[in-house]
Structure formats: C-alpha cells, structure tokens
C-alpha cells in the first residue's frame, strides 16, 4: 500500500467523514474505549470467567452468563442470560465498565451495549497459542500483567512436561474426536481442540480439514481407521448401536474415551492445559 502523503491525507479525510456521519446517526454503533483496570465486569463466556478466576480477579465480576461456572466461595454475580442471547437490560442495570465475550463484536446484543456506552472486549482464540496470548491480554487489561505472565509461564511448563512424556513414547496414536452427534461433528486443524490433542501426543485423523469444526460422514470416519475415539458430547446411545463406530477396531478394543471433563478441552481458558494433561494420560493408557 502506498505511503505517499496525498493518499494518506485522503484516508484520514475519509475516516473523519465516516466518524462525522456516525456521530449524527443515533443508530450507529459506537466503540467505547476499553477502561483501564476495569472494576465492574460482565463475562458472557465461561472461558473468560474461568480466566479471571485463575488470575484472582473474580471479585471484579458483577455479572456472568447462565453457562459460566460458579464463582469462588464468598463471591456472587448476577446471571444475565446466555452467550448468544444475553439480557441487554439486565447487563445495563449492573452498570458495567466492561463486557467480556468470545462472540463477534458486531453481534446485535453487543452492538446495543456499545451504543449505550459499554465497552466490549471480544476475542475468540482459535489455537492453543492464541489461548495463552489471550490470558496475557486479559491480565494486561486488568492491570495484572505480571500475574498473567506467571500463569502463562506455568501453563507452558506443564505443556512441556507433557511433550517430553509423549515424545519418549514414540509414535503418536491417531485419534477421532467427536464434538457433536447424531450429525458427526469433529475438529479440523484450525481448532484449539486440535492443538490440545497434538499437545497431548495424539494425531487428529481429520487434521486435513481446513476449519475449526466440520461435519463428516460416517463413511469417512470408518475410512480414517483411528487408533482412539474421543467423544466430547453426552452419550445417549450405546456405541454398539452406532455402526460407524462399532465397526472400528479402536472401539472393539476398548480404546474409547468418553468420560473426560469435556469443558477442559472445549473452553479456551487456562483449564485447557488441564484437558491436555488428562487426555495425554488416557492416550498413554494410564
């Protein structure tokens, strides 16, 4: 892109014009600045809530979503609806200086909050490295950068210990991870769950899928012939009644993991490292 003086002036003029138009439009979505060291926070994402708890910042939470975990003993926060359908009026009544979420910042509810002057921090990490980076960003935002740095360093040390153990074992087992059913949804290479599986010593049989999550056919599952099957959803039918799984050698040999704490692998919080550790032990037969 050219950096010549005139094009730069034209860009600045265009930005100024758009800002002026937005300021005249009462329906335009504003972007309030993020506060320094926010004190009254609403978290709409369980991962954000868990991260603040790990950073010792749970006392900043005035509101949480219906799906967030309970806060530590002695602390309480109002429930304000779901991640994708929060109660905007209930949030506004809490007078927060910041809302945390993983939703697109242009989501209708978030746009309504921003129009009312509420700052929104919306980040949705899609890799293990991004999860660790987001912990650091949240720590810095809350004036707890040093604490976040220590937490991230400890998480990296735990991941390194797992890596050394599974590298000593040699070959990686090939794993089919299912996150939903009866439509068979699995993980592609753009998911932090994929990264967690790799960190645990496994190889994703659908790592060729250029997506975070994707629906696959029963025939594809059979053709991939995984060494292990990991189910990250509620089981409401015996595997023997699912032909695409019952025919797998992994299932016949009992190499199925269906009782892990699913949230430890499906939430982009420090808890994800615990999920890596748990999965690594299971894949090692421990």
Summarize the structure.
By secondary structure, the chain is α/β, with parallel strands linked by helices.
Structural notes for this entry:
The structure is a single chain. With 286 residues, the protein is α/β, with parallel strands linked by helices. Helices cover 43% and strands 13% of the residues. The chain contains 12 helices and 11 strands. The strands form 2 sheets. Strands 6, 7, 8, 9, 10 and 11 form a 6-stranded mixed sheet that branches. A 5-stranded parallel sheet has the order 3-2-1-4-5, with helices on both faces. Helix 5 (128-141) runs antiparallel to helix 6 and helix 6 runs parallel beside helix 12. The longest helix is centred in the middle third of the chain and has 25 residues, at 145-169. Residues 1-28 have low confidence and may be disordered.
Protein topology:
Elements: H1 5-24, E1 41-43, H2 46-54, E2 61-64, E3 78-79, H3 88-93, E4 98-101, H4 108-115, E5 120-122, H5 128-141, H6 145-169, E6 174-180, E7 185-187, H7 192-199, E8 203-204, E9 213-215, H8 218-224, E10 228-231, H9 243-246, H10 249-252, E11 256-257, H11 263-266, H12 271-283
Parallel strand pairs: 1-2, 1-4, 2-3, 4-5, 6-8, 6-10, 10-11
Antiparallel strand pairs: 6-7, 7-9
Helix pairs in contact: 5-6, 5-7, 6-12
Based on the model shown, name its key terms.
5-stranded parallel beta sheet; 43% helix; 6-stranded mixed beta sheet; alpha/beta; 11 strands; disordered N terminus
What is the mean pLDDT?
Answer: 89
Output the radius of gyration. Answer: 22 Å
* Sequence of secondary-structure elements: HEHEEHEHEHHEEHEEHEHHEHH
| Main sheet: strands, sense, barrel | 6 strands, mixed
- In which range does the helix fraction lie? 40-55%
Distance between the termini: 55 Å
Number of strands: 11
The portion of residues forming beta strands comes to 5-15%
General shape = globular
CATH topology (fold) name of the domain at 172-283: Rossmann fold
So how many helices?
12
